[in-house]
Design a protein that fits this description.
three-stranded antiparallel β-sheet, seven-stranded parallel β-sheet
């Protein structure tokens, strides 16, 4: 049974500030006992962008020497497209100055299915090498989706996989992590801000078994929901 812990913020700005500090702690987390290297999953959407930008603007950003960054999903667009989650995270990635091998982006220059298989292979290698995904950010769409998992068909095709190619309702393709991968995240955090998210937030709080986002984290013992007052209602 997944436990949902809710953290409410008086404003979107206060949520963004708290996320900035949470990310700062996560990127500087030391290697765990036994030499387990830390990893963080970033999400797309508009809510985390101010935190990425604020961290990127810091004069000095402490980070773990063995940190790995991965992404919850990526639209099937070039890496320099304005629609790319990888591009939107560049302020933070530039400040971290990680080796290229430590940033697990979806290689959208490959054919779609190949990009999904390649991403899955690199996620699998991270886990086999003992990598521990600590903080994992997730968006919550007004329609109840998360990452690029939009419905039962996506969840079914993702079964037994770590990443899967998806055809989004907006006509774009994407590569998304799967519920199996989300089950490996120690601290999954849904981010929801704005009045348009109110219905999805209510359904998530109710544990609606038809909500895609709730089904996607069914394998997680504990999940956090960070929500501003506009989304909380």
């Amino acid at each position: 049974m997944t436990e949902l812990l809710t953290r409410r913020f008086a404003s979107r700005l206060s949520l963004e500030s708290a996320l900035e500090e949470r990310l700062a702690r996560a990127v500087s987390a030391p290697v765990a006992a036994g030499g387990v290297p830390p990893a963080i999953m970033l999400s797309g959407g508009t809510t985390p962008l101010p935190a990425y930008q604020a961290l990127g603007a810091r004069a000095h950003l402490e980070r773990s020497d063995r940190l790995t960054i991965l992404f919850s999903d990526e639209r099937y667009v070039p890496a320099d497209s304005p629609a790319s989650n990888y591009l939107k995270a560049q302020p933070l990635l530039a400040a971290l100055a990680l080796p290229s091998a430590a940033v697990l982006r979806v290689r959208t220059e490959l054919p779609l299915e190949d990009a999904a298989r390649d991403y899955e292979a690199r996620l699998g290698a991270l886990l086999r090498d003992g990598g521990r995904i600590g903080l994992g950010l997730l968006g919550l769409g007004a329609d109840g989706h998360t990452a690029s998992l939009f419905g039962a068909a996506d969840l079914e095709r993702a079964r037994g996989r770590l990443a899967v190619a998806v055809q989004r309702p907006d006509g774009m393709a994407a590569v998304s992590v799967s519920p199996d991968l989300l089950g490996q995240v120690a601290q999954p955090v849904f981010l929801a801000a704005g009045a348009d998210k109110r219905d999805a937030v209510e359904r998530l709080l109710a544990g609606d078994p038809t909500l895609t986002a709730w089904r996607a984290v069914a394998g997680c013992p504990r999940v956090e929901l960070w929500v501003d007052e506009a989304a909380a209602g």
